[in-house]
């Protein structure tokens, strides 16, 4: 197979995976994206977790949220895996005016202002919804059984993706922040330090608001039975993280390790498909992200230091090599 044909096949494989995920989501959205009858234990958990994350959306600088998947860690309740999956498969949160019957709490704490303006964006609903689901997963202490594996992978594929790392707009990146750097003089160290502090605060608040969307996906993947379908879904996940400007090196290395573990059960054609995808993703570049304001080498100009968010080429290439060797050895 020529390199050109390999690239075409790789693109087709990736496209087919993404198309499958979109089709599944569209097909089931009407039946799944609605309120679901939960047990009293889950109803209480959803309401409490919704209030926790609502506070963060309102005031991400001052409010706090959980940093681990631990809501049920010290609780005695036992919840069946099917009940957990049925819950996280559906939308558990909407702002009050978008759902007269939503499962989560419909009132804001009296001491806090109503969520309004840009915070009404659907992405904030998705962030709260993902936070709730992330914490509900703490009730699932082990890997999901093979009996519910297909449903669990579908839930994983349909899970909300964390939005682009700020700044979200290329024009804002090239113009607004670039112009800002041009207005700062090299000897204005205090101003540079203050601006960097504000930028890092913005990134920190963004992590606090939207980080649970990735954390939910991490915890859900960790509980999936490892097979060709779950690994394919994880490849899609890693790809979406890179495209939105979020590091995925640690996650992808874990997925690569899991793939090596299941490779012995795969057919040569399945291994070859994964090899093509790994080759296609090798060195793939995501958006350029800002790190900090700093001086150039001459010390005469202030500029924004940036870095690219890319797939780890070494990990991808090594994975492709290892799998190719496995396929040749007769696995």
Folded structure, characterized:
With 331 residues, the chain is mostly helical. It folds into 2 domains: 186 residues, no CATH class; 109 residues, no CATH class. Helix content is 57%, strand content 6%. It contains 11 helices and 2 strands; from the N terminus they run H-H-H-H-H-H-H-H-H-H-E-E-H. Strands 1-2 form a two-stranded antiparallel sheet. Strand 1 and strand 2 form a beta hairpin. Helix 1 packs across helix 10, helix 4 packs across helix 7 and helix 5 runs parallel beside helix 8. The longest helix is centred in the middle third of the chain and has 34 residues. The radius of gyration is 22 Å and the shape is flat. The chain starts with a helix and ends with a helix.
Summarize the structure.
This protein is mainly alpha-helical and 331 residues long. The chain has 2 domains: 1-21 and 167-331, no CATH class; 33-141, no CATH class. The protein has helices at residues 3-32, 40-58, 81-88, 122-136, 149-158, 170-183, 189-222, 228-243, 249-262, 268-281, 313-328, and strands spanning 285-295, 302-310.
SSE blueprint and pairings:
Layout: H1 3-32, H2 40-58, H3 81-88, H4 122-136, H5 149-158, H6 170-183, H7 189-222, H8 228-243, H9 249-262, H10 268-281, E1 285-295, E2 302-310, H11 313-328
Task: Provide keyphrases for this structure.
331 residues; mainly alpha; 2 domains; two-stranded antiparallel ribbon; 6% strand; flat
C-alpha termini separation: 20 Å
How many domains? The number is 2
Shape descriptor: flat
Q: Give the biggest beta sheet.
A: 2 strands, antiparallel
- The computed structural class is mainly alpha
Percent of residues in beta strands: 5-15%
Strand arrangement, major sheet: 1-2
Radius of gyration: 22 Å
Helix content: 55-70%
Number of strands: 2
